[in-house]
Amino acid sequence: MLTLYAPAKINWFLEVTGKRPDGYHELVTVMQAISLYDRLDFKTRSEPGLALTCNIDLGPPEKNLVYRAGELLRARYAPDRGASVHLEKKVPHGAGLGGGSSDAAAAVVGLNKLWGLKLENRVLENLVSEVGSDCAFFVQGGVALCTGRGEIIEHKAPIPRVHLVILYPNIVLPTVDVYRDLSRHLTYQPRNCYFFHGEGARNSAKTLPRVIFNRLEESALRVSPELREVWQKTSAEAGVTCRFVSGSGSSIAFVMEDGPAAQTLARTLEDRGLGRAFAVTTVTVGVSEHQDAGDRSIRGTNQAG
Ligand code: C5P
């Protein structure tokens, strides 16, 4: 048996620089892995194929990214092999945290190991980007500059650990709806990414407010009036350096001055009934056999959705 932890991500920077002929958007984004994890348990089985179970209802397994990524790996490299995979979901769905994408990356990393295929990370990244634009990042995680659809990855040196609160306001925001809204407003001058420039390479809670930007934020707030309401209610929280919508939403990420402030804010947001809140930190890994100690879900709930 093999256990892997699949981290969530936030986007420190996300600019959409154009629309492609294939319908996707061209991105420049800085992805960052954080200490909020799903868990996947892998076991070999003698029958060929994958059997997927989960702690929550996933709907048809064939539609799940773990199943699709795993079956893609099997079809290309190990058609005779079989495995059962159990997925323990904790990263909320439709949250802009990349939970499903990270699970898909964990599937190819896990099955590669379980079946002794010895495929290199590059091969796994290319393979898994076929099932979703931001899946490849999670193979190695940490912090990276991602371009193209999000699948062209340049890994960067980790920044000093940052404390964050992730608020999931119990709103599922389909990525496709947010991009559709943005498509109607593609009239801006794209911003440059200064995240890795000069002082930025040593970004901290102090410098982050100057480099954080998310082009999808306005669209996410426009698509979901409920999210805008939560956004407005959380504009002046104690201990917060800056805040932003993560990826296409619906999560709001708060950059915190320190760990205790993060713990306090997460508890306060949950007590006010604004959603589920997680006090987390940045992590320097991707899919891994170990969980960084920074993960502190306030209510200890293990259920997604
Ligand atoms: O690639 P993935 O399936 O994760 O993307 C989900 C949806 O998000 C796509 O169908 C597309 O509408 C939108 N998207 C996009 N440009 C990207 C990534 C995603 O338009 N670079």
Write the layout of secondary structure elements.
Layout: E1 2-19, E2 25-44, E3 49-54, H1 65-77, E4 82-88, H2 99-114, H3 121-128, H4 137-140, E5 143-148, E6 152-156, E7 163-168, H5 175-183, H6 208-211, E8 213-214, H7 217-223, H8 225-233, E9 240-245, E10 252-256, H9 259-271, E11 276-281, E12 296-297
Parallel strand pairs: 1-8, 3-4
Antiparallel strand pairs: 1-2, 2-4, 2-5, 5-6, 7-10, 7-11, 9-10, 11-12
Helix pairs in contact: 1-2, 2-3, 5-7, 7-8
The protein binds cytidine-5'-monophosphate.
Outline, from the CA principal axes?
globular
Beta-strand percent range: 25-35%
Task: Briefly note the structural class of the backbone.
Answer: alpha+beta
Helical content (DSSP H or I, runs of 4+)? 25-40%
**DSSP helix count?**
9
End-to-end separation? 27 Å
Number of strands: 12
Overall mean pLDDT:
93
Heteromolecules bound = cytidine-5'-monophosphate
Q: How would you spell out the order of helices and strands?
A: EEEHEHHHEEEHHEHHEEHEE
Radius of gyration: 19 Å
CATH fold type of the largest domain: Ribosomal Protein S5, domain 2
Which spans of ≥5 residues are poorly predicted at pLDDT below 50? 295-305
**Total count of domains:** 2
Class of the largest domain in CATH?
Alpha Beta
